[in-house]
Amino acid sequence: MLNGKTIVLGVTGSIAAYKIANLASMLVKQHADVNVIMTKNATNFINPITFETLTANKCLVDTFDRNFQFNVEHVALAKRADVFMVAPASANVIGKIAGGIADDMLTTTIMACKAPKYIAPAMNTNMFENPIVQDNLKKLENYGYNVIRPATGYLACGDTGAGKLPSEEELFSYILRELHYKKDMKGKKVVVTAGPTREAIDPVRFISNHSTGKMGYSIARCAMERGADVTLITGETSIAKPPFVKIVNIVSAADMFEAVKEAAKDADYVIKSAAVADYTPTEVADEKLKKSDNDMSISLKRTVDILKYLGEHKKKGQILCGFAMETKDLIENAKKKLVSKNVDLIVANNLKVDGAGFGTDTNVVTFIEREAVSELPIMSKDEVAKEILDKLMSL
Q1: How confident is the model at residue 157 (pLDDT cuts 50, 70, 90)?
Q2: pTM for this one?
């Protein structure tokens, strides 16, 4: 995922420094070349040997350390860096960088670095809210630094408020967004639907399906990492929402229809991957149901056909993608759907094939176009998401 990328992590004197060991490990697992620079104060909270063990690179602290290969180390590392993230960033180091002071290995290296730079403040709430610190952060943003807003919560000092270092997963997501893909979808607006819909029978029961949202979430995340402006319209799921996308939560098929209708007005790509409950209860068909929970006789009506509506109202230049899930006659049924719904691509999978369908981390799909059918091998859903977006961009 990050193979061939060089990431520099700057660690300053904060109790939150321990979190960066896990961040470094996460990055190494994605095959990144991770280099850690620590301030002397940071070594009071975590030992440099920890980072050296995790990254297999020397952890730099002393600007004049002679125990490494001869070169101007802070300049050499600055040139190699694809991303430089200072986390946790103390008020002291934020002030020094903002003021152009370069008096240790961390500040001299970041001063010489032209790669994207991220600053993740972590400090006492009163320090963070100090106007001087806020002015320094604004100054850094004006110079092109990316400032990650701290989380709010219980701090090590006992106070509760802003100043908490975000989780390792959140810091990781910033780096992944920066480096995972080329930004070939920058400026594009993408709408993705995901997850199940629910149609209420009564205040307790509902009709739904087995959709987990995994495929749609993978598509939304991939499009975001490729630079797109993404709106994710999602039913209730148990998986984490992808970061840096606009989330629209819905319950019923009618909710999804209204959300998609609005979001699709100015979208370049609309990808309907959600499994909508096809029917909604209308009224009790038997008086017994009103008297007994044992009788589930109800009348049903079809929910709105969202994909058909999108096809009928597709604006010029808009690309529309739908999904087809079948247990037989996959290609034939998908081709019919492609034509009848006026879409540009159908992503079809057979629910009886191992590794495909609901709840899995893999998928086996076939791309159905007007004049072509392309079957893909079993892949992770993240890999399938990339293939889908590649195909849509080629249309």
Answers
A1: confident
A2: 0.89
